[in-house]
């Protein structure tokens, strides 16, 4: 273990993130479980990439079978990308009927920004002030958790993120109004500065901001502001997508608005590097005609086979229904947790957040101790929020009631042993 | 076929590139061969992704085996990324001892640009005026074949690419001097404009520029200019890397210069989406300390298993030696081709270029007809160059003497039937 850490530092350099003070050495995955080198098992309550559970045999089989048949670029004709893409876009309304495949959510968001610029002929982009949309240079400009080298360029504006501890102002309705007003002001600033306004990128449930439990309709006023200004709503569904929310396949359906495009990533291939943008034909055409985009690995037959198997399993195993049912059950258990520092417990399907605050201020240190203690007891969690004070839980969708009980019981034990 | 084309247009939108006027419908690959839906086979002389041959069983087996074991992010400890990375960096000199993994060559080049900016604290970048380094927003700024939406930003400068038909000036030595002088002038312009100079990105054999057959030492003067100005040499080895040149594992070894980092892509996983930057520790540290880079899919155990199997096969099957021996044999055959429009025939290992010109001017139309005719006769080729007038041939490395004979004989027949 010490040896692996030393080898990492020698090979990968400094400041390469690992999870946990004493990182785990994972060698095997199966369903909701990860196993370390000593055979100890951990309940994975964090990894939304392994959407169907780790190493789902149908995805493994689809990859193995197709990799032995053909794995090449999309400049030749192949049914794989068409069969998958037609099935995928059928899951969207609002005229989102075309697809562009990439290898990562970062690449998808990078394309999405250019789509907005191609449609509008403007460059100005807006995101929230506490978010992450990926790691390319252009997308990192929006990602406030990881400030870009050389600072933020002038065509980017940031608006205050919805936050349950630091509300934008007043009642839920007033907060929605304040968010829209801040977007309107940012648009005005971009236009004054000569950049013009191309689009607003956001995760519809504000997952990286801490999933602040917004009601349907929260974004209606904002969407109106954006559309009136001629800009696009760029909806990053990398976290809420593919049925995690239980009630809906996509986050924007829950919030009830019509995006101009959506981007997809992590869960799409259950670990295989595949991602996509789904857009209206007018948006796709503006981009395709302005820019000769080609991505060597994207849309290859193996990626499409993996992604297609993911849809098969979600449907055949009823995983969206499971996310709704087990999600509600698990949320019920989490809501029974009692601790003086718990400020809020909330959930959407199999996506949960527990917020810790001390005297009304976020308590990231306490949240960090909970994550470490859970790891020591065999449960893998993450955290998020302005002060990393929010437990973030996104287990694989086959999460069971028994898994939920184990999670809730472990958290209860930990909290009992950790006075405020 | 018509149906597939119609489905592509409906799903993917306009202006999505396919190869050939009448695109092929490929359903299976094996070794150097691709098979269409009617069972017709094509000799693949273009696809450098299938470095070991299509669907190499050892890579398929490595992917299938690891995908069934574990496929998760690199924030947990795992031997896969370490075993692979240590083996990879051992193949480099010049202190290039650290690695950062990505999913695509575009992502690797996007990171490379930021590494140069992190080391120097400057933003100015230089590339040639006829190149392609990938598809992210930042990298597309360097890619002259595909102009960026909104035009080139002011911190990018382009210098005339080496070109066998439009020499930079005079003898090979004079051309090298002219290239260096143009880079020096671009650096001066970037400094005058307040951007400063971060780095020069280039493919060491100028593959996308048409592989103009440069002698070792061509870049020596340029490298001196760049280093004196405090900038970095960002060496894009996506095409020449992993032994394709036969004489060397990497293009910069052939040219004989010391890059500050190299980027790797297409052949690295024989089709699996995996790519990397290999850099000196000081370069890696500057980037890692300036920017919290994390890439969800990159360096996962499956990608590393695929990439490791690629190294196994290259070594066990003697593919670098084969590239050198069969490459020399094939070049000999190609040099025997006779046609009034052939301006030059050149090769480096299993990378060949045949340049067509009419009255000293590039003849892209003729080259296009050769590509189409070869496809009709069962040979897949591509083309490149300022006027798309250069046949580009990069077959999988197990290319045999028999394959080379088939390629040369087919080209001979085609050229005989196509008067100037």
From TrEMBL, chains A, B:
InterPro entries named in the record: Aminotrans_3, Aminotrans_3_PPA_site, PyrdxlP-dep_Trfase, PyrdxlP-dep_Trfase_major, PyrdxlP-dep_Trfase_small
Key words, A-Z: Aminotransferase, Pyridoxal phosphate, Transferase
Record's protein name: 4-aminobutyrate aminotransferase
Family label: Belongs to the class-III pyridoxal-phosphate-dependent aminotransferase family.
GO molecular function, a single term: transaminase activity
Named cofactor requirement(s): pyridoxal 5'-phosphate
Domain of life: Bacteria
